[in-house]
Design a protein that fits this description.
Layout (H helix, E strand, L loop, with lengths): L1 H23 L6 E9 L3 E4 L3 E6 L3 E5 L5 E5 L11 E8 L13 H12 L7 H15 L9 H13 L10 E6 L8 E4 L6 H29 L1
Antiparallel strand pairs: 1-4, 1-6, 2-3, 4-5, 5-8, 6-7, 7-8
Helix pairs in contact: 1-5, 2-3, 2-4, 3-4
Length: 225
């Protein structure tokens, strides 16, 4: 019973580690299935000219039917509907080739990420809307001007001259639709992914833990005899 339980415990820990590893692996460079599952930003209306309003960040998408993640839209001139599904490619900031706006807009992509990084859980709707519209205006002309938008654009320009204050762009990826006429482009934050050596260390640690746990149980069992 004890041996069976020990093996089962090791198997479960190992399986959990492998599942976590697969979950954290980025899809960069691959075609993926994307579904818009929701919008977390409140609808921001602008009177009769924009009676229906515009949804602002964050949006939520599911990639390959996975758990929905928060994403930011950088594309004002296309549209997307709730529960709409499309195929996209994920790009990293190390190579912007193939993104909707391309390598010529490298500065704009970096400024967009910096702007998005300025949103916090305490940001007001007006601040979120100003940042969202500033991001849109980086890539598209004719984007409506909202209060605070120009100020954020100026701050993004300043950030670019200061190397974005050390912002790590390796944690950000871009979700680009395959078809130019298909839904909007989004970008999103990717948590740190442990190196393969880290997973090996975790596995070894779990095995060692299981061995110590087994020895302790045997000692306890012997003491009771």
């Amino acid at each position: 019973m004890l041996r069976g339980l020990t093996k089962q415990t090791i198997f479960r820990f190992t399986l959990l580690a492998c599942m976590l590893g697969m979950t954290l692996v980025a899809y960069a460079g691959n075609n993926v299935s994307v579904t818009l599952t929701g919008v977390g930003g409140a609808e921001y209306g602008y009177g009769s000219n924009y009676a229906d309003g515009e949804y602002v960040l964050p949006y939520y998408v599911s990639i390959n039917n996975g758990t929905p993640i928060a994403v930011i839209c950088d594309d004002f001139n296309h549209s997307v509907s709730l529960n709409e599904n499309w195929t996209a490619t994920i790009h990293t900031f190390s190579d912007l080739t193939g993104t909707r706006f391309g390598t010529a807009d490298s500065t704009q992509y970096h400024e967009a990420v910096w702007l998005a990084s300025q949103v916090t859980s305490g940001s007001s709707l007006s601040t979120i809307a100003a940042i969202q519209f500033a991001i849109w205006s980086l890539f598209s002309s004719g984007v409506p001007q909202v209060s605070g938008e120009s100020s954020w654009l100026a701050q993004a320009t300043t950030a670019s001259t200061h190397n974005y204050y050390g912002l790590d762009f390796s944690h950000w990826e871009i979700l680009t639709p395959l078809s130019p006429s298909s839904p909007q482009e989004f970008f999103f934050y990717v948590p740190s992914i442990p190196e393969p050596s880290a997973w090996l260390d975790l596995f070894v640690g779990l095995v060692a833990f299981a061995g110590i746990w087994t020895m302790k149980r045997r000692q306890i069992a012997s003491a009771r005899i």
